[in-house]
Design a protein that fits this description.
Rossmann fold, six-stranded parallel beta sheet, 362 residues
């Protein structure tokens, strides 16, 4: 019976045209040379830390499509970037021109509350050592994403980049948020003192393939996808979703964020942060209903009001992003369909890096 339900879900996803849309298939990874100032062709040496993580799995194919073969994806298996000696070794070994620094220690509200000191310590080290190492190595550019959770808890939505220092972040994730926020300080300080060209990006609430679906560590979209998918798989008549369902969020498909990275490597030369999001407001209730519709779950969705809601409304002002000629074009329904198709395809044998439990370190 369980096998039949799984087959029915996969069949439904195929019917709506998303099952064949595998992660990375939207990218043409063919080599493309770039012209230097004298018309000479060259390949840029770029390293991507945290390359096996959520965002990294999407960024690598985009960069390889754009810049060719000189892209090196790195993870904690190669270098522990909380160790100063390992950071120096990475720059010495790889000799990059550009560093896209995605390595981070991440998780959802439950993990942030339980392991607050770990989140602060590891991310503070990952940030400080990367900037100092980049300065010592004399690289051309450092790209540094930080979370939208670093904005003040009381920031008015849609949140503008100029509101970054107007208050303290949401308490539940403050240890992580403030550690990542030091990257903005570092970007400005290292530019001022050493001329290090770094760019700080602030993605909204990212979701997509390769996200973390561990219920102890996941964010709202992967957690809700897993709960509803497993309810449909088991034939349950109802499924519980954390909170009241009324909070408003701004979700952005991770592939859209990845597609903006080449622009910031090539054209943006400022420490002024840039929000990267859809700019679209969606309630958690609407999110859950949409996921249930895509999965084909027809039971009741029960909102567990004993669980925290977090901020009531959190959306992002994307005017600065749009003025740069950038956008996040994937609709929520399209992005969820892709994500759920990938999750369903890999759920049975835990393939293609699907994380249902385990470390949040990339």
């Amino acid at each position: 019976m369980r096998y039949n339900r799984a087959a029915a879900i996969l069949g439904r996803l195929a019917d709506i045209g998303c099952l064949a849309d595998r992660a990375g298939s939207r990218f043409n990874t063919g080599r493309r040379s770039r012209s230097g100032p004298n018309g000479l062709l060259f390949l840029m040496k770029i390293i991507v830390t945290g390359a096996t993580g959520f965002l990294g799995r999407h960024v690598l194919p985009v960069l390889r499509k754009t810049y060719g073969e000189g892209i090196v994806g790195l993870s904690r298996r190669e270098y522990d970037l909380t160790d100063p000696l390992a950071v120096r070794a990475m720059f010495r070994d790889q000799k990059p021109e550009v560093m896209v620094h995605l390595a981070a220690y991440v998780g959802g509200i439950a993990a942030n509350c339980r392991y607050a000191a770990d989140f602060f310590y590891r991310n503070a080290l990952l940030t400080a050592l990367a900037f100092e190492g980049a300065r010592e190595a004399g690289i051309r550019k450092l790209i540094y994403p930080m979370g939208g959770c670093s904005y003040p808890a009381g920031a008015s939505s849609p949140i503008r980049e100029t509101q970054m220092w107007d208050g303290y972040p949401q308490l539940e994730s403050a240890a992580y948020s403030i550690a990542k926020k030091t990257g903005l300080v570092a970007s400005q300080a290292y530019r001022q003192q050493y001329g290090l060209n770094s760019v700080v990006l602030v993605p909204g609430n990212m979701y997509g393939e390769y996200d973390n679906f561990d219920l102890e560590q996941s964010h709202v979209i992967p957690a809700t996808i897993r709960r509803i998918f497993e309810a449909a798989l088991s034939g349950a008549s109802e499924v519980y979703v954390w909170g009241s369902g009324t909070p408003i969020r701004d979700f952005v498909y991770v592939g859209d964020v990845a597609e903006t990275i080449p622009f910031f490597i090539d054209y943006y030369n400022s420490s002024e942060p840039v929000n990267i999001s859809s700019g679209t407001a969606t309630s958690i209730r609407e999110l859950a209903v949409t996921i249930a519709e895509i999965v084909g779950f027809h039971g009741n969705i029960v909102f567990d009001t004993s669980k925290p809601d977090g901020q009531r409304t959190k959306t992002f002002d994307v005017e600065r992003m749009r003025r740069l000629g950038l956008s996040a074009p994937t609709s929520l329904h399209q992005g969820l369909a892709k994500t759920i198709a990938w999750f369903a395809r890999n759920y049975g044998d835990r393939s293609d890096g699907l994380r249902l439990s385990g470390s949040a370190v990339a």
